[in-house]
Amino acid sequence: MNRITSILNINYPIIQGGMGNISNAKLAAAVSEAGGLGTIGCGTMSVEQVEGIITETKRLTKKPFALNIAINVSPHVDELIELTIKHNIPVISLSAGNPTPFIPKLHEYGKVVLAIVASVKHAIKAEEAGADILVTEGYEAAGINSTLELTTFTLVPQVVQRVSVPIIAAGGVGDGKGLAAALMLGAEGVQIGTRFIATKEAPFHANYKEKLIGASGTDAIIIGRSVGRIRRVLNTNYVQHLLEQEKGGISLQDFGQSTTEKYHVLGAINGDLNKGFLNSGQVAGLIEDIPSVNDLINDMIKIAKKQMKSGLTLLE
Ligand SMILES: Cc1cc2nc3c(=O)[nH]c(=O)nc-3n(C[C@H](O)[C@H](O)[C@H](O)COP(=O)(O)O)c2cc1C
Q: Residue of the nearest CA to atom 12 in ligand 1?
């Protein structure tokens, strides 16, 4: 038991991060059923699409789950907040933008607010704005990344040192050792994206899961550096095509058009690696199997406890 598990009302401090337009009820519900916290990411989906996933998740689990709203990505932020009120969703995570204007209303309705941050400066601002929990996301993480490029190992302790709200570490955690390490750095929980893709329940294309199993850490590369909008993805034909376009001086607008959620769905759901991309963190290099979500979470807890106990002997 720690502040994260008690505030979020969950058994284990393991959160499945939002996954934009490929978020789904099956994975979110499986994580919540296993004692963690599942999340539905809204990406650029319509309010009706998100409501459909919420309804399905509520059918699959009575346990708490979260909604992730990427502030500068979704065109429907206010409507999505209304949806969380209508459906009594207890936890809202706010990423990709300034959470400050949205926190008072969410608190008025008793919501727990998670803010995703990538620097000490953003962490202090989010705490001052009233965020209940901070998710500190390092540069090794999958998907859209902060251009500040701090790694989880350096970011977590810096933030822990300067704020008093509890911290969840995100980016690079894929097993019990990673969970133990995050807790030792002062986080009280972890948020995971990549590792949850390669699970039985995750309804993504087999090509995505196989690519993750075959990948080494260096296969999770950054695109978009030339236009100042970075995203970590698996190295595929489509990604090579994007990198060629970057070499040719593609504009931010054209790059944005080639990396819309349509291309995310083409890669992750349709499995078309020539036409779409696959988000992945560097932790891909650790993934060797496709367990059930329940087995993965139980194994992580077991190994983390063992690791933390045996770690003591290394200093004696
Ligand atoms: C397929 C995919 C889509 C993602 N989409 C979002 C998103 O819409 N909003 C967000 O805040 N984070 C998003 N992320 C980041 C995750 O929520 C999580 O913080 C990150 O994956 C943690 O790092 P890891 O991949 O090393 O576990 C996404 C990650 C993945 C794998």
A: 18
Q: Buried (b) or exposed (e) across 217-244, using 16+ Cβ within 10 A?
A: eebbbebbebbeebbbbbbbebbeebbe
From the options 3.90.960.10, 3.20.20.70, 3.90.800.10, 3.40.50.620, give the CATH code of 3-203: 3.20.20.70
184 CA from centroid of ligand 1 (Å)? 22
How far is the first Cα of the chain from the last one, in angstroms, to the nearest whole number? 27
Percent of the chain beyond pLDDT 90?
A: 98
Give me the pLDDT at residue 220, please.
98
Whether the predicted model's global pTM rises above the 0.90 cut: yes
Q: Where are the domains of the chain?
A: 3-203
Burial 185-207, CB ≥16 within 10 A → b, else e: bbbbbbbbbbbbbbbebbebbeb
What is the CA(193)–ligand 1 centre distance, in A?
5
At 214, which helix (H) or strand (E)? helix 206-214
Query: How far is the C-alpha of 127 from the C-alpha of 201, rounded, in Å?
Result: 35
Contact 70, 47 (CB under 8 A): no
Which residue's alpha carbon is at the smallest distance from atom 5 of ligand 1? 19
Q: How many A from CA of 280 to the centre of ligand 1?
A: 8
Q: Is the pLDDT of residue 284 over 90?
A: yes
Query: Which tokens in the block code for residue 218?
Result: 């260096």
The pocket around ligand 1, CB under 6 angstroms, is made up of: 17-20, 22, 41, 43, 68, 70, 95, 116, 137, 140-143, 170-173, 191-195, 197, 279, 281, 283
